[in-house]
Amino acid sequence: MSTYGIDLGTTYSCIAHLDSNGNPEVIRNNEDDSNTVASVVFFENENNVVVGQAAKENVETDGERVVQFVKREIGKPESRTYEFDGKTYTPVEISALILTRLKNLVEAQGGMIEDVVITVPAYFGLEERSATRQAGELAGLHVLSLINEPTAAALSYCARQFQEDRTILVYDLGGGTFDVTVLKMSMTQNDSGRDVQKITVLATDGDDVLGGKDWDDKLYNHILHACCDENGLTPEEIEAETRQDIRSKVEEAKRKLSKKQSSKVRIDVNGSRTEITIKRGDFEQMTSDLVAKTMNFVDAILDKVPAAEIDTVLLVGGSTYMPMIINAVESKFPGKVQQHDPDQAVAKGAAIYASMLVEEVGSPAAQDSQTSDGETLHAEQLTSKFTVEDQTPRSFGPGVVDMNGAKHKYVLENFIKIGEKMPAVFTKTYYPLEDNQELVRLRAFENISTDDTLIPCVDEDGNPQATDPAYKVKLLGELIVNLPPNTSRDTPIKVTFKVDASGVHVEAVNTKTDEIFETFLRTESDIDVERSAVHQLRISSD
């Protein structure tokens, strides 16, 4: 089978496909004796780059040549680059190396990857999604689509536990991101009149820089200061090698505390052996603010979907093994909490979704099968057992000039609001600001507001504007619409935004010439046309 689902995680990644019976199955990482691959890259030298657990083991000795947690940087405007042996790597390129390792796992076991679906946090914006897709393509993968991680986890759950008309809350705490999503699972009929399970996302919230790493950082600082107290040192006097030693032992200590009431960590500090005992209660106390932060997101989403309507709560992500998480969620939803493959559910759900997008004629999973009542299911029916209705993670729209009033204003018009059904499409007609414009500079923005209009993060000349930080307004890029000579200001320019799980597509059409413009410039280096207010579109007031 050539279609796979990939959970590209902050700390660990996983790849799955459908087995010969059509059930989701994770590809085993025999080299590391694990079902996952550590999302860590070690640049040993210019001829050898190591990905996985072997790379992670070099954090202690060669930490300056190890890259971890790159998912937190992918697609971020402030993300750093990494230089090794005279070559510079971006977060996209680092992520591509991790994806290549997953691809190699499949090929080493005689498989072949053609099409993939890659998961992303529900709260990822356009740039993060576009960068994730780019990483997949750089790894030589054909990325069919992206799917939100909570939605993928719900797909995996529905495949195993068929229940009609269930409202499910997915609490997804991964290594570096957190999502909470409420979904409705129900029965519906597809276009062929066959009953299928439908998953409808009702609400989503979260933080793409909150995850298990934050618990690790707290534990690291606790051990560091304990070592200082034991040896009469300040943190600045602890050698880099000792810091790396502490960092390498944090994750194992955290895992032990999920099973035991205490864990011992032995650290060499300036040649002296120091033993630190960590109690589970102390760990829970020092990270209680992080737990509370996740539960604040849960409370916020329950304002949209009351707790009384929640039938099942799924714990997803490796960090949900921590008893403090289980207890916090259980206290909010007594008797409703379940764990199903927290480390693997997302990849399995992505594999199911990939099978929905590709018809694998001739593969074992596409052969006819029988249901429990003896009914024969054909190949195309096996890949159409589900239908998914997801939500837009942000609001999107263009920056345009509003001519109403004594003085025109440059505003962001929210075409598509956060929480709308995906794919979402909206079209509106605008006009050139002046006669004889040579071009139109159509800027696209994202935000988390549901207001019809906002102040964009740059003005019509491209200079920064003061915006409400609560709305997280971001300039995504520009679409340059070239206009023929003698274009009048009453020329209709039809602008369309389309949003799906993979990102945003922006299109402009000169309705007088039928010329279509789709080349979207995403970075400042791409934008080489001189900025000018005369290049804008206007909301008609004629």
Number of helices: 12
Give the overall average pLDDT: 86
Largest sheet: 11 strands, mixed
N-to-C span: 59 Å
Q: Which radius of gyration do the C-alpha atoms yield?
A: 25 Å
Number of strands: 32
Name the poorly predicted regions.
360-383, 524-530
Helical content band: 25-40%
How large is the share of residues in beta strands? 25-35%
Q: How would you describe what is shown here?
A:
Mean pLDDT is 86; it is low at 360-383 and 524-530. Helices cover 25% and strands 33% of the residues. With 542 residues, it is an alpha+beta fold. It has three domains: 3-210 and 291-389, Nucleotidyltransferase, domain 5 (2-Layer Sandwich), CATH 3.30.420; 212-286, ATPase, substrate binding domain, subdomain 4 (Actin, Chain A, domain 4); 395-539, Substrate Binding Domain Of DNAk, Chain A, domain 1. The strands form seven sheets. Strands 22, 23, 24, 25, 26, 27, 28, 29, 30, 31 and 32 form an eleven-stranded mixed sheet that branches. Strands 1, 2, 3, 4, 10 and 11 form a six-stranded mixed sheet that branches. The longest helix has 20 residues, at 212-231.
